[in-house]
Amino acid sequence: MSRHHIAQKWTTHAPKLREKWTALLPRPCLACGQPVTKGDRWHVGHIIAAEDGGKPTMQNTAPVHAHCNLSDGGKRGAARVNAARRAVAARDQAESGRRSWR
Ligand SMILES: [Zn+2]
């Protein structure tokens, strides 16, 4: 299976993840950090890309605004990686409620 096909397979799992994330909104956008609400157009974004071995799990995904996801254009640059790390840090902070990440 090529790397391309792995990415294709991942998308087939996204609808169920989307249902789960919808129940958890609002959540920070994976790309810009602003809240994604049920009134927004949004996609299920992945923190570790499928082609890098990321799994289609709640732990490896987060909501991302449609415009943020589309503007990414499939490129995986430093900005995207940093945004993903901030999203994970924010999630950790929300759970611990004590660690500053700014
Ligand atoms: Zn966004």
Automatic annotation (TrEMBL):
<dbReference type="Pfam" id="PF01844">
    <property type="entry name" value="HNH"/>
</dbReference>
<keyword id="KW-0540">Nuclease</keyword>
<keyword id="KW-0255">Endonuclease</keyword>
<protein>
    <submittedName>
        <fullName>HNH endonuclease</fullName>
    </submittedName>
</protein>
<dbReference type="GO" id="GO:0004519">
    <property type="term" value="F:endonuclease activity"/>
</dbReference>
<keyword id="KW-0378">Hydrolase</keyword>
<feature type="domain" description="HNH nuclease">
    <location>
        <begin position="19"/>
        <end position="70"/>
    </location>
</feature>
<dbReference type="InterPro" id="IPR002711">
    <property type="entry name" value="HNH"/>
</dbReference>
<dbReference type="InterPro" id="IPR003615">
    <property type="entry name" value="HNH_nuc"/>
</dbReference>
